[in-house]
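Figure 3 (text version): structure tokens given as input.
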């Protein structure tokens, strides 16, 4: 049987910085409020002519280069995004694979909001273990600024743009394989976090409605409570099922939505501060891109070494959630 190994990571963040002080000039908020309630100090914003696929491509280029693979060895590309270049078609994964010059590959997008990266990791693992694919490029890429209402202080302070990518490859060596992945969803909570217009579930009476059709809306406080409960339950279960202690985790890489949510889950697992990976302060919430951007952060700062165990944990619109036990297994 083939196993799936997490071989490499890459990420890209646009250069334009949007600070809390910048936002305080746009809506009724303050650096103090945002910092205290979310832990976010700034986020990155893509240029007008910089699309989700452009950021995804740049992250993917790094992941491919670091994997030691030739582009021709990649046989599948999956992109997790809620801010695709085009809402219906073509998929952003298709555009990225063409921009990378990958030729004939299987390519598609999935929509699981902030849990997107854990979902595409599970899909890559399943395709590899079934023997259908050998080297899968997975990408979380978001231009959330394109679907953010910058007159709504409850959401516009949270979100930013960016992309992260990883190569997942087949291996015979069980010791370097992804250990386990959990994914879940419950549509009962769909209205907590959604883009209510713009799809076949809505219609537009006015041009104004159409123009704002994809903006995200969130019941933040209710989402917060469900997030803490669900994330904690999910990580406790995945550790228990795999007989792994919190102390065995080298890097806890949670979805970077809110420092208070991350701290609550970290405390529940009794994790030390150095085990918890944090990028929320500088990138805000980049949805499907947030976990791979955070993994890239510890990789580029030299904190992620071969063989170290990561625990990924995510939660997002849908509602969706997921967790994964992933050793970092670069080719030697
Ligand atoms: N600046 C100043 N005041 C604000 C702001 C702001 N930007 N936003 C809200 N307020 C006010 C509210 O109006 C409210 O005022 P009131 O008490 O007079 O009514 C007060 O602050 C408290 O508002 P809450 O919404 O209760 O604030 P909370 O502490 O819950 O923080 C936040 C809001 C940061 C959004 C938090 O609820 C949160 O992080 N929620 C979870 C987000 C999340 O994890 N989403 C899932 C992933 S995202 C995805 O899938 C795309």
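Below: residues designed for each position.
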């Amino acid at each position: 049987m083939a196993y799936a190994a997490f071989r490499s990571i890459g990420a890209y963040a646009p250069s334009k910085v949007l600070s809390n002080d910048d936002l305080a000039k746009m809506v009724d908020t303050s650096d103090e409020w945002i910092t205290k309630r979310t832990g976010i100090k700034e986020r990155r914003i893509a240029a007008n002519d910089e699309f989700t696929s452009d950021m995804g491509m740049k992250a993917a280029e790094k992941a491919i280069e670091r994997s030691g693979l030739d582009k021709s060895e990649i046989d599948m590309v999956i992109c997790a995004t809620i801010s695709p270049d085009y809402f219906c078609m073509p998929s952003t994964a298709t555009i990225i694979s063409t921009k990378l010059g990958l030729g004939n590959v299987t390519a598609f997008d999935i929509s699981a909001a902030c849990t997107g990266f854990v979902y595409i990791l599970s899909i890559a693992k399943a395709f590899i273990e079934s023997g259908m694919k050998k080297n899968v490029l997975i990408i979380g890429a978001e231009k959330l600024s394109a679907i953010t209402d910058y007159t709504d202080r409850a959401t516009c302070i949270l979100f930013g743009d960016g992309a992260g990518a990883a190569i997942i490859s087949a291996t015979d060596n069980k010791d370097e394989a992804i250990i386990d992945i959990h994914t879940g969803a419950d549509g009962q909570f769909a209205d907590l976090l959604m883009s209510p217009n713009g799809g076949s579930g809505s219609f537009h009476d006015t041009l104004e409605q159409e123009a704002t059709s994809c903006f995200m809306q969130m019941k933040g406080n209710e989402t917060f409570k469900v997030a803490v409960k669900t994330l904690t339950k999910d990580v406790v279960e995945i550790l228990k099922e795999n007989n792994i202690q919190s102390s065995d985790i080298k890097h806890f890489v949670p979805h970077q939505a809110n420092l208070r949510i991350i701290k609550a889950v970290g405390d529940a697992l009794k994790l030390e501060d150095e085990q918890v990976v944090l990028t929320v302060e500088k990138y805000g919430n980049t949805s499907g891109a947030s976990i791979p951007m955070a993994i890239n952060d510890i990789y580029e700062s030299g904190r992620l070494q071969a063989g170290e165990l990561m625990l990924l944990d995510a939660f997002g619109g849908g509602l969706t959630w997921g967790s994964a036990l992933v050793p970092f297994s670069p080719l030697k």
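The pocket of acetyl coenzyme *A is lined by residues 29, 33, 37-38, 113-114, 153-154, 157, 193, 220-221, 223-224, 227, 257-258, 261, 285, 287, 315-317 (CB under 6 Å).
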